[in-house]
Amino acid sequence: MEPESFFTKNTKAALKHDPPGEWMPPVPDHSIPLNAGYPAHSLVPYEEMNEAVKDLIEEEKDLPFQYLGSKKVNTVKKFVRERLAERGVVLLEKEILVTAGAIQGIDLIARTFIDRDTWIVVESPSYMEGLETFRNYTDHYITVPIDENGMQTEELEKTLKDRKEKNLPMPKLVYTIPSFHNPSGTTMSIDRRRHLLELASEFDFLIIEDDAYGELYFGERPTPIKAMDSGSRVFYIGSFSKIVAPGLRVGYVAARSDLLEPLAWFKKDLGHPFAEATLGSYLSQTDMKKRFEMLRKVYQQNCKTLISSLEKYMGDIATWKNPSGGYFVWVHVPGVDTSKILNEAMQAGVAYVPGKHFFVHEQEGLSYLRLSFSYVSREEMVTAVEKLSQVIKKHIDQ
Ligand SMILES: Cc1ncc(COP(=O)(O)O)c(C=O)c1O
């Protein structure tokens, strides 16, 4: 029996790529995981969740364990609607689909809108699991570079005009992480956000705005692209992973209902009603504005520590941009292939994500690496950066 012969064309094409998660080998216990894009242990509200679960079960008995039994799942949608309205995104209830994490939202959009011959636009670099998901559906990418003001929409415009002139296939979707980008930490300027919307209308494409880090700003709060989306071309994707707990697997997609509805054909009931009800119970007991303020303060301070460690230990060998929110600092180490020295760095006690995994064309990212300031303690961060600098210096000196 040849398993291959049973796979769909799509599966065969998808399986030509690396398996999911292949980009990060196991991190040894003694290594400080600056690779991890997780919330810090102390910032996961497990005690409050304990209360939320107890109250939920006391109040509703078996209901949260039924397929769609608990009314508390509606609290999640209500929270999303109210919070997004404060950020300028006014939505009807039918314009929100709660998903099993942001990543299910990305997957459902991809399944619904991408054929194997569909072209899509991604930023260069981009979120590696987003890329992994899109690769399950297509291998046709237009990549747009990022600078300190986010996606270079002027470059996108040039590319689109050029493709149109040459009668080349035009993209159907643009995937962007406009605020506190993973991995680059950059934020798209308001002018470019407007420009992207203009291009969407001129060249007739849809936009996926992945705003997983949108609440975690250190200074100015960015305006979501969706808030300016008068043509209803934007799928806005949000997540509770970075602001409450990733293991709940709760996120959402917001879009005009006729674009959103088909996603439900594929989602069916493959969400997490118990996790959603627990989150609903937690949200109704928590002052989330206060929580967001607390998270911003802690992450901003963490970020300062990471940046000052980089200045102290790597100022002469690397460059980086100071992020104004999110979880990550994107470091450029000219002349070093960061994927080749990862094992040595992990043996020396520090892990990071090699830059190449964030690129469609991997060679563009060889001399980059992503560090996270969300997960480990500030003391560990300083130690980790010192260790990393020692490993890198050995390779620069050679
Ligand atoms: C840009 C971006 N989008 C989506 C996700 C995944 O979110 P979720 O845990 O809700 O699937 C992440 C997590 O790292 C992310 O960085």
UniProtKB/TrEMBL annotation:
Where the record annotates domain Aminotransferase class I/classII large, the positions are: 48-388
Keywords linked to the UniProt accession: Aminotransferase, Pyridoxal phosphate, Transferase
| Disordered, as annotated region | 1-22
Q: Which CDD domains match?
A: AAT_like
Question: What does the record give under GO molecular function?
Answer: transaminase activity
What cofactor(s) does the depicted protein rely on?
pyridoxal 5'-phosphate
Q: Record's InterPro entries?
A: Aminotransferase_I/II_large (IPR004839), Class-I_PLP-dep_aminotransf (IPR050859)
> What superkingdom heads the lineage?
Bacteria
Q: What is this protein called?
A: PLP-dependent aminotransferase family protein
> What is the source species?
Allobacillus halotolerans
Q: What is the lineage of its organism?
A: Bacteria, Bacillati, Bacillota, Bacilli, Bacillales
